[in-house]
Amino acid sequence: MKPFNESAVIQIPIEAVFAFAANPQNDPLWSLAVAEARQTSLGSLGIGTTFQQVLRLHGRRVEITFAVTGFEQNRMLEIGRFSGRLRSAIARRTFEPAPGGTRVTFSGEGASGLFLNLLEPLVTTAARRQARRSLANLKQTLEAQPEQTAAGSNRVAGREP
């Protein structure tokens, strides 16, 4: 997959956006591709924390594992060391102040290994579209619940993470 970036401005303070969107356990609450997520290591979120997720991809459920490979509080989360075909992928979520809120940028790169990487342009297009849709959903989710996200809660719209 060729490198890509997709961004959105969320009208919520950076600390609240980071507390919610940088925690992969919350991904099922806003990411259209993630059906389930759980932390598989002990301790707080940081470099080395591991996760397991079940993705919805083209009508199939695909289980993946990954680790946090980069972490800066209120600034960046990087995940990598994926299981399976995504082994060489890196996904990054960056957070920066923006007028009226927080700019969130999703970045990705790596090789899927599909058909000797001949399908990489299609994989990149699909990943970019997924990132754009998920960012829009994240923005809608957080901006609809400002009193809960302002407190840094992981609960949104009455759902448990």
Notes on the protein architecture:
By secondary structure, this protein is of the alpha+beta class. It is 24% helix and 35% strand. It contains 3 helices and 7 strands, in the order βαββββββαα. The chain has helices at 14-21, 120-144, 146-150; strands spanning 4-10, 34-39, 50-57, 60-72, 76-80, 90-98, 101-109. Strands 1-7-6-5-4-3-2 form a 7-stranded antiparallel β-sheet, with helices on one face. The longest helix is centred in the C-terminal third of the chain and has 25 residues, at 120-144. The protein starts with a strand and ends in an 11-residue tail after the last helix.
List the helices and strands and how they pair.
Elements: E1 4-10, H1 14-21, E2 34-39, E3 50-57, E4 60-72, E5 76-80, E6 90-98, E7 101-109, H2 120-144, H3 146-150
Antiparallel strand pairs: 1-7, 2-3, 3-4, 4-5, 5-6, 6-7
Highlighted features:
3 helices, 161 residues, alpha+beta, disordered C terminus
